[in-house]
Amino acid sequence: MLPTTAKSKMAKAAAVAKATTRPVGDTISAQYKILNRNDPKLVTHFCQLREKRAYRADQNSVLVQGLKTIHELVARQIHLKALAVTTPPPILASRHIEDAALTQEARHLLLHPESIPATRYYSLDIHLTRRILGTASQPHPNEVWAEAERPPIEFTPPDRLLVFNGIKDPGNLGNLIRSARALNWTASLNVQGTVDVLNDKVIRASRATSLTWPFQSFGTIHEAGAWMEGHGYMPIVADMLPVSVDAVGPVLWDPQSPEGARPLKGLPRKIALVLSSEHWGFKMRAHGQGGVQPHAWTRISIPMMPGAESLNVSVAGAMCMLGLNALLQV
To answer: Where does the chain cross the membrane (predicted)?
Structure first.
């Protein structure tokens, strides 16, 4: 029989041999570069993509979080400049993949990066992922995120146009854009104060639809109104109805005589639905500038039960779009 010390040495040697003869399939693909704090320029680049609208525009790219959204981008044939997989530190150190420490999706990506085409691939720990995505994003230990290139977008004014007037909440804007695409409202005028359509939370809420969303920016609602007037649009403002109306579905009304609210009828072909933050509503009561009179624009409202809270702007906006579509037989 072998002495205990000899058995111990043999066991250690066997363990070392096993560790050095692991199959290739159990190691992270060589295409992945480990991203850490020793590359501050690249880390800063990713952070600025999340934080700064001007930097996103300059780089023509955005930061995207989550596999579902990334798969949406791939389906739309949007180029990924980088793909990153959050990886536990022991795996980063050894590059050996332990199944128990990874989700099935993360393991597959680390072994087969070609399953999601990208120019560069990175693996990094959760602490750096939180710094890049922001703690509010609540990334999980195997979070996947990407830098995506924004494709060229041509703004062609459609017959049914949206006007986003100071919508600050990225979730609301993302949901509005997603609903708009589904209901065939395909572009917008974005008034100053509206969150960037390329904000990472807008992209996530819109399921990547905002990345290819056509829009034009304006400093004030008066400037947007002048543009609409020059292009033959009838502005219709989503607003709270100040009187009780016995109706099912959206109604139109004149702000000078709200008691005359009526069911939708007789609209021109080119209309622009103006949507504002539900916190402020449409507060343009003062006289307009240069002939533009936003305070006099036709209103659209959704009758509700007495005492009911106002609807979220993304819900109300979708209902108004659907009601206007029915009228126009879209």
So the answer is: none
